[in-house]
Amino acid sequence: MVVCEHVADAEAMLEHKSFSLTLLDLANGVSLSFLDYASSILNPKPVVAIIGEGSSTTIINALRAGADDVFVVEDLDLSPKLFIYSMKRQLRRALYIEESKRLKDSLERSLDELRADHHAAQHVQQNLLPPRHQTINGLVVEYTLKPSLLLSGDFVDAIEINDHLIIFYLADVSGHGASSALVTVLLKNLTHRLLRNYKRHSSFDILSPVLTLERINREMLLTGMGKHMTMFVGLLDTQTSKLTYATGGHHPMPILSCNESSSFLKGRGMPVGLFEKPEFEEHQLDLPQVFSLTLFSDGVLEILKGSSLKEKENWLLSTLQPGYIESSQLTEMIEEGFEDVRPDDVAIMTVSRA
């Protein structure tokens, strides 16, 4: 407790110390202007004013100057219990205010730490993604990925297996945020582990999109994270121009554009990470010399104009009918007129040969 006999001392205290409760004696030299000043400095902490006479005008002026409660000097002797009750109530209020500020400061520190962690995780995830534009075995592979939050549950990759084989995929992990992004880290690690195993001749699963999906399915179940994903995996042999692919519950299917026509690839399969023994179909397709294959995550359908799924799919087919469109340009066309926050991550990947 601090007692100041002079206004100048009180003013100095207010500038250098924090108080839970302040009493100002207007009956002994404290002015209304100082009450107003002190109340603004101490807000929202309670300030109690003691006045010399109890006219309604004096009380109202004190309240308007910022006092939370007002007592007349002569009433302190007549009703001391009322004064004590008021002080206890104001002290409880001050305690709640201080506790609230402490919790707020703690929450802000936690949020700052969380934001820093998310930015660090975003940096890690972006470093795991392949170059946005690259050429592998004569194929041009490029993509655009726009997360709805800081971290993305969508992920893409293209891996050169040897001088004529390339495996590529687009995955869409359930949910959003850090937990979904963590699965993409697992996915990157697993696919490159499959590549290392191939080079060591210890496993050849990477040469089969179905076996690749089955390996990923087992790994996701072992994590116990309760996450699953949809995924399209393609294996392209540039010597034979043969595409082998499998899908794990992915929609929309990739669009193949060639000879001034476009069509969705056929295929179906269960989501990855839900079932111990899922069923995946493997398909093969002979590709022409010039073609473009465009892969999407389902976030595209969330923002694409159209009153039905069929209309949205038809728009994609007609837009890609002339042939290759760079993913960033296609994303701009899809997002045209869409001003809301994206409800889902959006990923577009193209694999093409001119």
UniProtKB/TrEMBL annotation:
GO terms for molecular function: phosphatase activity. SUPFAM superfamilies: CheY-like. Its EC number is 3.1.3.3. SMART domains: PP2C_SIG. It comes from the Bacteria. Residues 136-353 form the PPM-type phosphatase domain. InterPro entries: Bact_Sigma-Reg, CheY-like_superfamily, PPM-type-like_dom_sf, PPM-type_phosphatase-like_dom. Keywords: Coiled coil, Hydrolase. Residues 97-124 form a coiled coil. It holds the Pfam family SpoIIE. This is Phosphoserine phosphatase rsbP. It comes from Nitrincola nitratireducens.
